[in-house]
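Minutes, project check-in
Item: structure for the 286-residue chain
Input as provided by the requester:
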Amino acid sequence: MWFGTDQGIAVLENGVFSQYSDKDGLGAGRVGAIAQDSHGTMWFGTESGISRFDGRSFKTYSKADGLPDQFIHFLQFDRSGQLWVGTNKGVSRFDPAYERFRNFSSRDGLLSNVMMEGVCLLDRDGKLWMGTSLGVTRCDPDYQYRAAVPPLTHLGDTLVYDQPVTNARLGELRPVENQLTFTFVVLSSRDESRVRYRYFLEGFDPDWLAPTNLRFAKYTNLPPGWYRFRVQASSDGDLWSQEAASPELHILPFFYQTPLFLGLTVVAGFGLISGVFKWRVLRIRR
């Protein structure tokens, strides 16, 4: 049996209580919601996001992962295994398999964006009844909530040490010009507050980074090399826009990082060793 407390979680098993807190990886703050999925995994709503516990360790999802707000009021699984999360800024549907959120607000039909603690019911027909500060909202989880078209993504300025540079300059940056900031925005969206961006710097990042609502990406201390920045936007977390990409950019190496310098160093090293060897031979002959 699981209990949410102001300091974390208490679990009663075989007559013995165990406790978990943020020191164990649980989200910080009071635990106000508890749910269990069909696999037996436990989910907890905290004041800093939702935490998943697989029996061994916790993983917490927060605003950085796509939640509209981190103060959780309720957790409820629907019949397809999607987790519905009530917050102070609307409701979020979380897909545990893909670890992504789809957020809903009063623009989508909620009576209020402020959810009531613990007030969410799944009825016999599979419909969700959610309590808000202005009344109850009924939701059909099986309805396909998808954006008709993804937002159009546009790359803005590229900054070197916070100063804009032209695309022509990006092809030949000096070695010290290795702090870059890429800015981007959507040109049209019904609700820009729900737009999320994902990006990666080709030549540096191994894959797309986690979605964020920030409209810029900053990289520091980039090593010499060739790069291209790519970004996409989505308003629902499912349908992503075509990527916008920067021109190819090149950070030149310092002279001591060039193949020529390395080659000269090797030649000089062999010359020095050869010279020392000959000098030793001459001394021995004398």
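Outcome recorded: Residues 259-285 form the longest helix (27 residues).
No further action items on this chain.
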